[in-house]
What does this fold into?
Amino acid sequence: MSAEKIAGSFSTFINQCANTFVSLIKVILKSKRGSTLPIANTPSCIVLGNGPSLKTSLEKYPDFFTKHALVCVNSFSITEEYTTLKPTYYVILDPGFWYGDSDVVTNTIDSLIKKTTWTVYLLVPHLAKQSPKFRELDKHNPNIKINYFNYTVYKGFKSIGYKLYKHNIAMIQSQNVLVGSLFLALNIGFKEIYLFGADHTWHETLYVNDENIVCLKHLHFYDGKEKPDYRPFYKGIHLKETFNMYEVFTTFAKIFYGYMQVNEYAEFRKAKIYNASEVSYIDAFERIKLSTTNYES
It folds into this structure.
């Protein structure tokens, strides 16, 4: 081995040691012990992203979605599909939902309370306890079972990280809620996970206006037929600061790297994640295309 490779390997080892040390300090200071998740009672589930292509998948393969437990995210409760599909798990990771009071937050919470007539396991980070509207959700509707998890990001040696992940003490960095949802689905115990509606085509809709503000078309499967307008790309639903272009692509990189990490963790858990989205830029998971004549699993 050349001196250059030895130096590179040594540098990588030192960085991993430093990252592991910092992560363990964070775990000690931030993670809550005894955090548990529901236990899967079926071998497979579907994670529903809110990308535009989900509408196509729901129309083409309606029966497929009745054969698996469903995991939904963010503002899915405001849709008609929430009451027709009746997802069992609901993941919210964006701190804007407990720190903010926008119409999106209010409508999501109100819909969750009013529409949920079946048992739903709501999975949110421990930080959500700071919000009265989350703490009291199950009081307003006993069908909602709140499960808090540790969103303590671990970086470092995988052998240590996987043990922390498995015991719900730490998590993979989840720059997007779907990364966190897939991670939680693995820890719930699902062995086959199908991902739909994970378009991630944001870069196709970026625009810089005359004021040098980065704008984005916010596209979801439940949006109306009217043509969506470009809006400033804010850093969170409760924040008024916008991304600059450098930050946008740095954030995108973190999202796609998170998917790679989740796929490696799935292999460790002897599980499989399939990306069945009609449209998707995610390359970390095996892609499958359902057929209208054959979509048994």
